[in-house]
Design brief:
Layout (H helix, E strand, L loop, with lengths): L1 H16 L8 E2 L1 H8 L3 H14 L2 E3 L5 E3 L2 E2 H25 L3 H18 L6 H21 L3 H11 L16 H23 L3 H11 L1 H12 L1 H7 L6 E2 L9
Parallel strand pairs: 4-5
Antiparallel strand pairs: 1-3, 2-3
Helix pairs in contact: 1-3, 2-3, 4-6, 4-7, 4-8, 4-9, 4-10, 5-6, 5-8, 8-9, 10-11
Length: 248
């Protein structure tokens, strides 16, 4: 039952983050169970977990419904990720970058270099970069060896567009996004350099600055919703119009 419950939870969370449910849509247990080829019990437990994570909410008529996220909520989640990763990076730098972690980080930098340090990028290069980026950010958290920090990041990554690669440059052309990816990857190089030199404060500041690219893309999604809808289908669950001064 536990493995089935975990599978249902992962599937439902993925469907939500891909925008398969409209904000306010009722999430009925029986249709979901049929769709996921599962019984009602794991679906019910998964929905309860998703409510705790903040992805769904109680429905006035009972059960659950899809909720809508505000621009400010997503922007804040990205900022929090920058702070968590900054703390992880500072911890690694101050404790000393291990040889194994250094080797793994440099291997990822080399993969990223091959993807972005060329005249133009194709879709395969983008896919390689996304995978490299996710692995590099995950290594930072794992390398801090802080269980509480890892749990906090796991919960944060369950929120829409808070995960490291979910708000990569979404410009309307590959050429336009290429320049931003080069900038992001140059920041990766600076970060790994700071870790190797034991520069904790510099590493922390670089992580906090790094997430500004994701926030820039969120702003662009608000200003160019037609592009966002094509590149990021799940953006439909974010109320881009509800932008507050605090999120600017």
């Amino acid at each position: 039952m536990e493995s089935l419950q975990s599978r249902v939870l992962v599937q439902l969370r993925d469907m939500i983050l891909k925008g398969e449910f409209a904000p306010g849509e009722r999430l009925a247990e029986i249709p979901l169970a049929d769709r996921l080829k599962a019984s009602r019990t794991p679906v019910k437990l998964a929905l309860a977990t998703l409510e705790h994570e903040g992805l769904v909410e109680s429905s006035p008529g009972g059960g659950y419904q899809m909720r809508k996220f505000t621009y400010a909520e997503v922007s804040d989640a990205i900022l929090v990720r920058g702070n968590l990763e900054g703390y992880a990076a500072r911890t690694i730098a101050e404790h000393g970058l291990s040889r194994q972690l250094a080797r793994e980080l440099h291997e990822l930098l080399a993969i990223g270099d091959k993807a972005v340090l060329k005249d133009s990028m194709n879709l395969d290069d983008y896919a390689v970069y996304v995978e490299m980026n996710s692995r590099l950010h995950a290594l930072l958290i794992a390398g801090s060896e802080n269980a509480a920090l890892s749990r906090a990041m796991d919960m944060l990554n369950g929120l829409p567009f808070a995960e490291a690669s979910s708000m990569l440059p979404m410009q309307s052309s590959l050429e336009e996004g290429h320049a931003w990816m080069r900038l992001a990857h140059s920041q990766h190089h600076s970060l790994v350099d700071a870790l190797g030199r034991g520069q904790g404060l510099r590493a922390q500041a670089l992580c906090e600055e790094h997430v500004e690219i994701a926030r820039m893309n969120l702003k662009m999604a608000m200003e160019r919703p037609e592009v966002a809808a094509e590149v990021l289908p799940g953006i439909a669950i974010v109320d881009l119009a509800a932008r507050t001064a605090r999120a600017r």
